[in-house]
Amino acid sequence: MAWVTITEADVLTVLSGPELAAYRSVALAGGQADPVAPIIGQVVDLVRGYVGGCKSNQLGEAGTIPAKLLQPALDIIAVRIPRRVRKDPTQARQDAHDQAIALLEKVSDCDFDIEEPVTPSTEETAAGTPRISGGKRKFGREQQDGI
What is the DSSP string of 2-41? Predict the structure, then answer.
């Protein structure tokens, strides 16, 4: 599978057309910009950040995500758009959102395999290098009495 761009048609697989139109009208009534495109962009950046967290992953072209992560990204969008207009998501949507974040954490920890992009990005990832810190001592002078 290739890397994909999230479109409004994709969003309509998790939000109904009338529901999306209602969120748009509420957001636009207050003089705000259309919430859909910016939220899609934010979620794409979020997913790419998690993907880049695993040093062995390579990012695809700007604005794309792995096709395997499309549904989790849409589950996040399905919660973020209603929250923009201060509407709490349904429990089912919130659960799907939480599962999507858990999956993205697995991706970042290199515990979930994603496809390599056909056209890799030149974007640098911020995947850190391992750090070793001293462990906490379990025993001190007080525990050594009588030895």
Answer: -EE---HHHHTTTS-HHHHHHHHHHHHHTTPPPSHHHHHH
Sequence spans of domains, the chain: 8-118
Per-residue model confidence (pLDDT) at position 30:
61
In terms of C-beta distances under 8 Å and separation of at least 24 residues, what long-range contacts does 19-25 make, across chains too? 20/81, 23/81, 23/82, 23/84, 23/85, 23/87
Q: Which residues of the chain fall below pLDDT 70? A: 1, 27-32, 85, 124-135, 146-147
Both tokens of 19, joined, read 């529901």
Are 59 and 50 within 8 A, CB to CB? no
Backbone angles phi, psi at 65, to 5 degrees: -135, 160
Q: What is the pTM of this model?
A: 0.77
Element (H, E) at 66: strand 65-66
